[in-house]
Amino acid sequence: LQLDPFNGLQINGETVKLRGACIHHDNGILGAATIARADERRIQLLKEAGFNSIRSAHNPVSQAMLDACDKHGMLVMDETFDVWTEGKSAFDYSLSFPEWWERDVEAMVAKDFNHPSVVLYSIGNEIPETGSGLGSGWGRQIAEKIRSLDSTRYTTNGINGFVSVIADAAAMMKEAGAGDDSQGVNAMMSGAGEAMGRISASPLVSERTAESHAAVDVAGINYGDGRYVMDRELFPNRIIVGTETFPDRIDVLWKLVEENPHVIGDYTWTGWDYLGEAGIGRVQYTDGTDGKPALGAPYPWLLAWCGDIDITGYRRPASYYRETVFGLRHEPYIAVQRPQNYAREHGMGPWTWTDCISSWSWDVAEGSPVRVEVYSDADEVELLLNGSAVGRVPAGPNHRFRAHFELTYEPGELVAVGYINGAEQARTTLRTATGDIRLTADADRTELRADHSDLSYLAIEFRDAQGNLATNVEHTVTVTVEGAGVLRGLGSARPDTEELYTEDSHTSFDGRLLAVIRPVTEGDITVHVSADGFEPVTVSLTASAPAASE
């Protein structure tokens, strides 16, 4: 590993830009359980989506996750703490930090030392003390401790300049008429908009956080990309990584990463959706209310709903947009805003994506108005509905890789065609699911190890005879397991539900569900999947004793 402000991060002599995903510790419908196969599957799907690095927000990553990252070539920023001496909630780790920090750092480095995937140690996340002399002193002490244990990796600290000067920031925002400090830091960030960016790039933040950034090898910056260019002049030796960023800004952020050698990467919040911080990424429909969107959502919301990948492992539209921005995808991606919500008043926070999915199967009347987004790196995108041109508009980097269309719903075939210099580059087609809809169930793996570390994931879907996903189908599905395995989780990606993931029945969302089967002994496992009005499906699995080398 090599690091400097002129070449950035180099691995074996080659500059690597970190296409990063912040991920929380939970495994979706399995909850907080750490199971080796669950962690490996997450890494495989994140890798397939175009990420090459993860940030373990905000606690050290599991041993199983590190094994998976080593195996599949995913770089790791492993993070120690979410708090130091100043607490963020009642009775949190800040009460134990002075006594335990050193032992916890030693345990993390010992865990990571022999894992080649680890390239960065993060010593904290949005630590309020980083804007003070006390905090910078703690930061230097932690960083030096890590260097004494492992001199081969680099250190960083995810500093949010806004949080580091929170008392002053609140006053500044009140003067500017932005934000509300009565609802906590996240609410202030959500409502601040450009004001928060200006504060993060202010001389006050430059002065208060200089020593904390200097204590580590790489300046981790949360939601402060306004510093990237200016810091090259103010702090010529500073190397920067975007430790936490808003998903909707990836086109702007990635251009900054590519154009500035001292900026080594970007970590979006988040790569994978998670339980908790319910509704921070939702589109809040405000018709019938006071019109003021709020951060988060009330019960029965469960999920943050801000991940590129949902909790069941399916990629959401933001993921395909990011892949396009990264230059890894050249086929147009069609995202259709849910037509039942057309023209409704709504609010969107900084972690929100538009309320869309890639589908042309809708339970709305023909002729209903629809908004369509197409993500493409092509110069232009043409949209065709059942062979007739809807329009042809600019796309590509000069138009934020997006083309927007207004049309009316008509079942059939929706096609997006990308053009470069007038010639067709690629096309994508969506088709309406028609005729008899079938219940399907497919296992990602049918041969399992009969130990505590393995799982089989069953994709349960409603599709027509041609294989088109019927996203407009919502049905209760029941899963039963016989033989050498048990049902460990059943659920959908629906962010607001009162249904449990621990029961044997659950309602589909956007035409899909996920079941997780865990072997408990050697032998055959039979999984029965059923829904009223549909032909049941049976899936056969086998659990065998692990090989001696496993």
Description:
Helix 4 packs parallel to helix 9. With 550 residues, the chain is α/β, with parallel strands linked by helices. It contains 12 helices and 30 strands. The chain has 3 domains: 18-272 and 307-324, Alpha-Beta Barrel (TIM Barrel); 330-431, Immunoglobulins (Immunoglobulin-like, Sandwich); 438-544, Immunoglobulin-like (Sandwich), CATH 2.60.40.
The domain count comes to 3
Computed Rg: 24 Å
* Mean pLDDT rating: 95
Give the biggest sheet.
Answer: 8 strands, parallel, barrel
Shape: globular
Q: Tell me the strand order in the biggest sheet.
A: 4-5-6-7-8-9-10-11
CATH secondary-structure class of the largest domain: Alpha Beta
Structural class of the secondary elements? Answer: alpha/beta
> Alpha-carbon distance between the termini?
30 Å
Q: Tally the beta strands.
A: 30
* CATH architectural name of the largest domain: Alpha-Beta Barrel
Helical percent range? Answer: 10-25%
Describe the structure using short key phrases.
single chain; 550 residues; alpha/beta; TIM Barrel; Immunoglobulin-like; 3 domains; 8-stranded parallel beta barrel; 5-stranded mixed beta sheet; 12 helices
